[in-house]
Amino acid sequence: MTARTAPGEPAWFPRGGKISPRWTTIVVHHSATPNGGARSFDRYHRNKGWDELGYHFVIGNGTDTPDGMVEVGSRWYKQKHGAHCKTPDNYFNEHGIGICLVGDFTRNRPTQRQLASLERLVGFLCDRCDISPARVVSHGSVTHKTACPGRFLPIATVRHAVASASATSLP
User: Fold this and answer.
1) Is 148 a catalytic residue?
2) Whole-model pTM?
């Protein structure tokens, strides 16, 4: 179902090493739960009638998985559409990479390790998928039906960190 990787390990590559050209945006979520991980979210999604975990990646908070650990979902390995951000045209499921951080960021802040892993993962995805940091969005900003990922996970800060990191890595 998922492969667990420590932050920075190259297991973020899909099977066969080829990333689909379908990806044009990254959608960031929170689980809105105090604990969890890819395995429990997969179970929850299947109980809702979905075929598997809806996200491509899950970043742990130290409860079910180590703090900051990136779990790679099977949708990423298969380069399969997501099931994490429904819109009338389904654009964000078809073309958006779904990343979920464990926690409820309407009440609490993500951990420093979660933020570091998120920035590293988003930077990797922006680079490898040719996605502008400006195309990193929150679930709530797309659907306008949820506060996800909460007020304590400002997407603008993530965008800025990724853009700054890529600018400093230029020759």
Assistant:
1) yes
2) 0.90
